Amino acid sequence: MKPPPFAYHAPTSVAAALELLAELGDDGKVLAGGQSLIPLLNMRLAAPAHLVDINRIDELVGIEVGDDAVTVGAGVRHAALERDEAAAQAAPLLRQALRLVAHPAIRNRGTVCGSIAHADPAGELTAVLALLGGTVRVARHGGDSHDIAAADFFVAPLESSLRPADLVTSVRFPRPPIGAGSAFVEFARRHGDYALCGIGATVALADDGSVATARVGAISIHPTPLVVDCGAALVGRPPDDERALTAAAELVDEASSPEPDLHATVLYRRQLTRVLTARAIAAAGAHARRRRRGTTHPTQEGIDG
Amino acid sequence: MAETLEQVTLRVNGTTRQLRVPARRLLSDALRHDLRLTGTHVGCEHGVCGCCTVLLDGDPVRSCLMFAVSAEGHELTTVEGLTPRDGDELHPIQRSFQECHGLQCGFCTPGFIMSIAGLLADNPDPDEDEIVEGISGNLCRCTGYRNIIRAVQRAAELLRAAESEAPGADDPSPHGAATTTSVSVPYAPSGADDHDATGDEGSAR
Questions:
Q1: What is the ipTM of this complex?
Q2: Nearest chain B Cα to A3, which residue?
Q3: Of A107, B5, B85, B143, whose CB count within 10 A is highest?
Q4: Across the interface, do B24 and A2 touch by the CB < 8 Å criterion?
């Protein structure tokens, strides 16, 4: 189908965009990559009176890799972050997850901040942001920018704590500790489809090679990205200890509240949760071992695991 | 009743085109209806099938998930732009689809070809996993994909041969000699004449 009519605005500065959004209030909607919004318009599931296209705002296009975080501007496309070597080195989980976001043609256009603002419970990057303890920077006309922690940002499926006239200008992914490993695994009916369950994991190892910290961020099994600390099951154990992995999988399963749909029953999603949690933690543990030994090749960073 | 029209300047296949369309005009519809470039096909119109894939500054994107007005200032390439305008010659990717039987009904083919053009420009020698990833966003209901994967491998060979072929060098394959287009320059602007699609056609709705 075709999108419903709307008035189109294409500001070239953040200030102009904020002013427009303030003027439009509830009637305004931000258009970034459009890879979630335009399907909704085409299917007539959304009909905003005004679209504010932020694709012409150059100041929003930037990836900044700092000592403690990777900050991604609202104009940055999935493909650009996926290809950024410095970002992949600093936080390998970014590339590990980005490779699972839809298809190359979607990643060439879709934006990282847009995925997060869309707050789809199946969106890989929501879990990455939550798992790394990241924040969303929000600007609005006549006020200072403020940061919202991921835990407060995702409220319900497709619902964030953004208010009308708010603009996400960047998101900040804190770097995991040096030597920590990560992995993102998911199961979808076809590669690139929405995952029936997806699990990201970060594992840090102690000097003796046992697990020091283990955390999981999950998609598609909870109304919002679910973060579970699996330390109780794994600390002091080797990261590939079968019994510890089973116990960790139980923790995630218990914390989740999956919904049934056309593609998977609740029981099936629970089964996927347990299997994928064990796989993700084991892979993140193996990744941590390789990083400690310094055996990951830079270009391989983020691909394995 | 009348919808506000936007004046849009598009660069398509090396030529500049002017059109007046509502802001909600999808790029896919602008290409097909306003510019009469019907090689870009429209299947699902919500980003699933991949039939409408075109290159935006060299990268494959869904033209049904973009407004024409947002494409201003970018370089667009459609399947029509892969080959010289009046030439009978096929692009190496098109030829490899023919040779390897990479199509049956042909509906999905332009989208596949544009995705593959983007893939091979980025990665001239993809392995099978990379090929599968590269075409994962395009659906084909006829071929079962095996022949398409073979066609990508064949197209990569043809393009690499064309790339490494120095003038006057012996032609190692019967296909090498005819290969003059490369995906890094995916269109052959035979005289960058400008077209003006402003008018009744563009502003009819």
A1: 0.92
A2: B24
A3: A107
A4: yes
